[in-house]
Specification:
Elements (H helix, E strand, L loop, with lengths): L5 E10 L2 E10 L5 E7 L7 H12 L3 E5 L6 H15 L3 H14 L4 E10 L1 H9 L7 E4 L7 H5 L5 E6 L8 H12 L3 E6 L18 H8 L5 H19 L1
Parallel strand pairs: 3-4, 3-5, 5-6, 6-7, 7-8
Antiparallel strand pairs: 1-2, 2-4
Length: about 240
């Protein structure tokens, strides 16, 4: 898809528990556009995540990122969100489903919906792959307790990992083996030089922690690997969400 201008909108997403805040990226043009629910990383919706919304929306997708911390704040919601990720159920999953319904109801959406996530959000994207999406992009997402159960009936998956990511050792091999075993169409790639969060266009984490995150932990941008990963995602989504 050709690159487009993008407008970001702050939106309220209806849920059974009240309104959920989110950021919606709308590409220029008449549409309708395929939709993508984008799940943020552990640090919430900050400049890196807004840049990722814009990046995918420029490719011609209606991109919605629900703020999983918007009802209670990051500190209060973080534990509940990770508990949901470990258990495969909970408010974070409900909120992501509400975001999908919000996109589907829009007149400028084709009804084809994908899901993508980064870091913590990558784990959610993997577990959401069997919940009615057309394609899923898992970017350095943690494995669920029961990977085979999560992949039962899953949509096609494109996944990207960094070999230097000590938090997800052998994750690329694990998920590729499982996807092949389930006969799920997939594109999995491990980047030898990359670490966790390599697709972020800027430094990861709160400003006070960024020097530590980059120099000690090694979480920093890897532009060449990120460009390749995005190219693969856009090709994969174009195939399955057009």
């Amino acid at each position: 898809m050709a690159s487009r201008d993008v407008i970001l909108h702050e939106v309220d997403i209806p849920t059974d528990d009240g309104l959920l805040r989110g950021v919606l990226g709308v590409p220029s043009g008449k549409g309708p556009f395929p939709g993508v629910v984008m799940v943020h990383e552990i640090f919430g919706i900050e400049e890196n995540m807004r840049a990722q919304i814009e990046r995918l929306a420029r490719a011609g997708y209606l991109v919605l990122m629900p703020d999983l911390y918007s009802r209670g704040g990051m500190r209060t919601c973080l534990r509940a969100t990770f508990n949901a990720l470990r258990s495969g159920s909970g408010q974070a999953f409900d909120d992501t489903e509400a975001a999908k319904a919000f996109l589907s109801a829009r007149a400028d959406c084709t009804g084809k919906i994908g899901v993508i996530g980064f870091c913590m959000g990558g784990g959610f994207a993997l577990q959401m792959a069997n919940r009615g999406y057309g394609a899923a992009a898992v970017n350095y997402g943690m494995m669920p307790t029961d990977l085979d159960d999560a992949l039962d009936g899953a949509c096609p998956i494109v996944a990207s990992y960094g070999k230097r990511d000590k938090t997800l050792k052998n994750a690329a091999h694990t998920i590729e083996t499982a996807l092949a075993r389930h006969g799920i169409e997939h594109d999995v790639k491990e980047y030898p030089a990359a670490n966790h969060a390599f697709m972020n266009p800027g430094p990861a984490g709160p400003k006070a922690l960024r020097p530590f995150m980059q120099k000690v932990v090694g979480f920093k941008p890897y532009p060449e690997e990120a460009q390749d990963a995005w190219s693969r995602i856009e090709t994969f989504f174009a195939t399955h969400l057009s």
